[in-house]
Amino acid sequence: MSNAGKTATGVNTGATGATGATGATANVPDSAPDSAPVRRRPASLHRRLTWGVTLLATAAVLAVEIVTFVGLRHWLLESVDRSLTSFCPPAQVFRDAASGHGFPSYVKSPGVLPADFRIHFYDSDGRLLSDAIAEGTAPGPALPPTTDALAAAEGPGTGTENVVSLPAASGDGSWRTIVRPGPDDMRAVVGLPLDSVRNTLRNMLLADAVLLVLTAAGAFVGARWVVRLGLLPLTRMERTAQRITVGNLDLRLPDTDSRTETGRLGGVLNTMLDRLQSALHEREASEARLRRFLDDMGHELRTPLTAVRGFAELASRHERQSAEAHRLISQNAARMSLLVDDMQLLAKLDQQPTYRAEPVDLLSLAADAVSAAALGSPSRGIHLNPLCSEGELEVVETSGDAHRLRQVIDNLLSNACRHTPPTTPIEVRVGATRTAPDAGGVNAPHRASPTPPLPTGVPVCVLEVTDEGAGLPPEEARQIFDRFYRADPSRSRDRGGSGLGLSIAATIAQGHGGRLELDTWSGRGCTFRLVLPILRAASEAGPAVTPVRPGSAGPIRRC
């Protein structure tokens, strides 16, 4: 029936018995959707390997048994065929069979014929004679009554002399026969029973079956043990992984021998775990920095806001002090504006801004910054010197944004002026060198930097700002470039600043492909070093490095 017919039938049935059982049945779809197939539980690797090894071993033994059985059967049949082909009845026996008087008694006596030979005769007319020479009383082969029927029954032979297999006259036995010619066109059929061959093959099949069962059972037990031993590293990995998932992230997989598959897997997983642990630590450190940043930002903004609110209330209560209150309100508002500007600048720098790539004379920038700082601190000696102690000031060019690089130099000079006594001299050195542990650009003891090191031996231009102040201990030097960080634990703001200047300077240096670093020793001052890729070196000779000058944290270079 078509779908339209089915639909019509369903509609009519529903209309006829809408309130009865028939109507209810009509609303049911013709066939319910098949239930979701049940997923079979996947077999474990241990089980699959065990059964795989067992099946392979059993199949190998079975194949060997089949080959052995076929070879033994062929060898036994060939042995019977050789016995048949090597035996030929004498002519006298043919004449005795044709006479009709029977064979002499000695012919039928035991031991005359070898083994279980049986001989049947056909006369000259091709008829089967009833008298036969036989050893024992077992039924002979089922022979046809004439030689013509015998030839048809034999068919093509399997041996060199037409040796064929014939069934027994009674029972389920079989005979191996060969036709021998005799005098007066007589024929003799010489046969040997295959009972011994069949018994031998039957016993062999029984032995093979027992051996196959024992082999399968032994292969299963041995495979379980071998597979369990082979998968032991994976089991240890599983247990270690479970302990790691509980929370012990410092654990590592024990098997890491690169000569084995499980060892290589363990090495790869350990590397992955190291990276995941590093990523988790970085995430925790980033969250800690973010919490500290928010806390410091709130701390920075709360003080001027509180001051603004207090001075506004003071101005509203005391008209005589309104001018001073307005001045202080304006001062704190400017401080908040500067802080917000620094935060916005950091946010822009974190987004990897595109800096202008133009030649910048680092010596001219340093000279302008030193002049401006000297005007702001007339009592302090601020000097501009070459990087090499015995050299001369030379033009050193880099590629970048002159405005941002001048901002870095101003931050370094203002930081040195703010955190040292008013009479402490400051030295600014500019020159070209190559990156080295003593020259800068790479990591070294007593050196801190938030930027990765540059390759060793690369030509760079360097600007150093050195003071002879109190210096910083190593634990404070490592945090000096953190945002809102101050070495003063009381967060004193008597000297101004928001704790963002060095972070801004380090970010700008990194954006120019360079590095900002700090060399400091407690009690021996600080040296902030700006290292930038050089555009044109003033001198081709690489400067040598001399020991540190007493009283200064910066190395003095001699060309």
Question: Can I get a quick summary?
Answer:
This protein has helices spanning 3-16, 21-26, 45-85, 91-99, 105-108, 147-154, 195-230, 232-246, 261-317, 322-350, 362-376, 402-418, 474-477, 501-511; strands at 118-122, 128-134, 164-167, 174-181, 187-193, 358-361, 382-386, 397-400, 426-434, 447-448, 459-467, 515-520, 526-536, 544-548, 555-558.
Overview of this protein structure:
The protein is an alpha+beta fold and 559 residues long. 48% of the residues lie in helices and 16% in strands. The chain is built from 14 helices and 15 strands. Strands 6, 7, 8, 9, 10, 11, 12 and 13 form an eight-stranded mixed beta sheet that branches. A five-stranded antiparallel beta sheet has the order 2-1-5-4-3. The chain is rod-shaped, with a radius of gyration of 54 Å. 23% of the residues are buried. Residues 1-29, 155-160, 489-494 and 537-559 have low confidence and may be disordered.
Note the overall shape.
rod-shaped
Cα gyration radius (Å): 54 Å
Percent of residues in helices? 40-55%
How confident is the prediction overall: mean pLDDT?
75
The structural class is alpha+beta
Per DSSP E runs of 2 or more residues, the count of β-strands stands at: 15
| Number of helical stretches of at least 4 residues | 14
Q: Assess the beta-strand content as a share of residues.
A: 15-25%
